[in-house]
Structures are given as C-alpha cells and as structure tokens.
Amino acid sequence: MATTTTTLAPENVSLAKARGCQSREDCLSLYAQWAATYNVDLADASQNYIAPFLVADMALGFSSHAKGAILDAGCGTGLVGEGLARGGATTIDGLDLSPEMLKMAERTGAYRSLAVGDLTQRIAIANDTYDIVTCVGTFTQGHVGPDPALGEFVRVTKKDGLILATVLGEIWKSGGYEAEVKRLEAEGLIDVISADLKDYRAGRDKANVIILRKR
Ligand SMILES: C[S@@+](CC[C@H](N)C(=O)[O-])C[C@H]1O[C@@H](n2cnc3c(N)ncnc32)[C@H](O)[C@@H]1O
C-alpha cells in the first residue's frame, strides 16, 4: 500500500528564539531584530500563522462591541489590527513592548494610537476604557504570564465588554493561565464564554482562544 508523508518546512529560527526568551531584555532585543521580517516569516504558507486573523474575525462577530473602542495588547506588527480594520473596526489602539514592532504596526494605518507598554506590569490605561481587548501571540513561552496581564485586561474593559486572547496550548495549564481565568471567574469579575483549543499556526500548534465577558 502506498504511504504519503507530509514534510513541514523547518521551524522559523526567530520564532524559536522568541519562545526561548528568558527576560524582558531578551524580548526587546529579539523583536528589534525581527520586526522588519516578522510578517513574511510567520504569515507565509510555511508557518501558517492564522491566529491573528482568526481572533480578528471572532472579535468582529461581536458586531456592536467591534464598533466601539478596541485595545490590541501585544499588537506587534499589527496583524490583528489589520484584520479588524478590514472588517470595519475604526477605533483600535495598540500596545506593545517593542518600539520596532510598533513602527511596523504604524505602517498598517489600522490603529488610532500606538504606545509602548509592558504587560507584565500594571498598564497605564484607565479602568473601563475598552469594549474589546484582543491579545494574540503574546501569552506564549518566554513572553507574558497570566498575572497581572489577564486581570489588567479585565480592569481596562468596560462592563459587558469582551477579552479575546490566545494562550499557546502547551502552556494553558502549566503556565497558570487556566487557573487565573478560573480565579477571575470565581471572584465574579468575568464570565467565560469559551476557551476552546483552535489552530494557531495551522498544522503546527494550537492555542486556547479565550473569550471572556466582564461582569
Ligand atoms: C508573537 S508576537 C505577536 C504579535 C501580534 N499580536 C501577532 O499576533 O502577530 C508577540 C509580541 O509580544 C510582545 N511582547 C513581548 N513581551 C511583552 C510585554 N512584556 N509586554 C508587551 N508586549 C510584549 C512582543 O514585542 C511581540 O510584538
């Protein structure tokens, strides 16, 4: 009987380095070097990084929320913002640790404002500001842990507003993200609409895509 084998293109070297970051400084240095080629590296067919477009489409599905103010946290080069803007969202603010990634995001023209910010700390945004917070690709190895980031997203989201975020599947439990979501739910701060495992880089890895509604 004939057999077929599927050969994946090699892992992207910069992505492997990103997942190996040990500190904020490692992240800053890696993304400073990677910003210019990030989109080509990840969005091309060999890496199949579909998560930004998947989450943008999911957010746009909440059409009345998507007409409001959106924070794209860990916006990087702006793939999520581009997806949101293509679907008609007009009020998108981006925040990221890396000035070089933010420069690429600016070129998309999708964002109302872009700011440097560190999601491992309290963020400089007032309570109850956004209708939607998106965060894609930033809850991954070597980047941002669940606390305080998830609680901060809840704080800056309006009542009944939504948080849509990816958490790389392999660290959903081990990294404490599931436990933090459960804690926020038990405290009566959010309802969990879903946390399903979905394609992240299609054919390569999956992420839990969480959709939380602020109470
Ligand atoms: C894999 S990229 C994802 C970017 C974009 N959301 C996307 O899906 O293409 C991860 C991003 O997280 C940002 N990042 C890493 N650590 C961060 C931190 N402590 N605070 C804010 N952003 C951070 C990086 O600068 C980078 O732009």
Structure summarized in a few sentences:
It is built from nine helices and seven strands, in the order H-H-H-H-H-E-H-E-H-E-E-H-E-H-E-E. The chain is of the alpha/beta class and 215 residues long.
Mean pLDDT, to the nearest integer, reads: 95
CATH topology: Rossmann fold
Count the beta strands: 7
- The H-and-E topology, N to C, reads as HHHHHEHEHEEHEHEE
Strand count, sense and barrel status of the largest sheet are: 7 strands, mixed
How many individual helices?
9
Count of discrete domains: 1
Secondary structure: helix percent: 25-40%
The CATH class name reads Alpha Beta
Using the CA coordinates, give the radius of gyration.
17 Å
Tell me the distance between the termini.
57 Å
CATH superfamily: Vaccinia Virus protein VP39
For the record, the CATH architecture stands as 3-Layer(aba) Sandwich
Broad structural category: alpha/beta
Low-confidence stretches: none
Shape by Cα distribution? globular
Commentary on this structure:
- This protein is of the alpha/beta class and 215 residues long.
- The chain has one domain (13-214): Vaccinia Virus protein VP39 (Rossmann fold), CATH 3.40.50.
- 35% of the residues lie in helices and 27% in strands.
- The chain is built from nine helices and seven strands.
- The protein has a seven-stranded mixed sheet, sandwiched between helices.
- Strand 1, helix 6 and strand 2 form a beta-alpha-beta unit.
- The longest helix is centred in the N-terminal third of the chain and has 11 residues, at 24-34.
- The radius of gyration is 17 Å and the shape is globular.
- The relative contact order is 0.15.
- The model has no long low-confidence stretch (mean pLDDT 95).
- Bound molecules: S-adenosylmethionine.
- S-adenosylmethionine binds at residues 24, 27, 31, 52, 74-76, 79-80, 96-98, 101, 117-120, 136-138, 143-144.
- This is S-adenosyl-L-methionine-dependent methyltransferase.
- Keywords: Methyltransferase, Transferase.
- It comes from Hypoxylon rubiginosum.
